[in-house]
Amino acid sequence: MYQQANRLLRGGFIKEKEAPGGRRKRILSLTPKGRRAVTGWLASPASFPEFRNESLAKVFFAAHGDLEKIRAMLLDQRDHHVSQLAEYEGIRKLLELADNPEVPYELMTLRLGIAVEQTCIAWADEVLKDLDRKIRSGRDSGRERRGGSARK
């Protein structure tokens, strides 16, 4: 973030002033050149998003591994999404208190982040239930698919 801000400052797209109160905090705003660049960027077509999530690949290939390790990985992933959701909810509360004409648009984008985190948490909960059933039934790896027994 700081590298990008410094690059934009050097390019004349944004300007900086210190925040009141003595703390070393920068307030950045667009320059006329920056406003023209944003206007042009907004008029151009947007690329389609790519969803990449390594945990999906690990679940996809879970039959070839240790389900307990997959389960632990999913719990970590779920914890991350819970933390991210809490952060987004905190930002939402702050934005709702702000008196700024940009806030409605910031909230529009934040709603997607909140929805993605909620969906990831719900998906992890479903998969964890499925994994727990498989683990309890003794199929803790994909050995049954390869002709071996999962029981010792």
Residue share in helices?
55-70%
Number of helical segments? 5
* Major sheet description: 2 strands, antiparallel
Number of domains: 2
Tell me the span between the first and last alpha carbons: 53 Å
Q: Report strand order across the widest sheet.
A: 1-2
Q: Oligomeric status of the shown chains?
A: single chain
- How many β-strand stretches? 2
SSE pattern, N- to C-terminal? HEEHHHH
Cα-atom radius of gyration: 23 Å
Mean of the pLDDT scores? 89
Give the uncertain stretches in residue-range form.
Answer: 140-152
Summarize the structure.
By secondary structure, the chain is mainly alpha-helical.
Task: Supply database-style keywords.
two-stranded antiparallel ribbon, mainly alpha, 152 residues
Explain how this protein is built.
By secondary structure, the chain is mainly alpha-helical. It has two domains: 2-43, no CATH class; 54-144. Helices cover 61% and strands 7% of the residues. The chain contains five helices and two strands. The chain has helices spanning 2-10, 32-43, 54-60, 67-97, 103-136, and strands at 14-18, 26-30. The chain has a two-stranded antiparallel sheet. The longest helix is centred in the last third of the chain and has 34 residues, at 103-136. It is elongated, with a radius of gyration of 23 Å. It starts with a helix and ends in a 16-residue tail after the last helix. Residues 140-152 have low confidence and may be disordered.
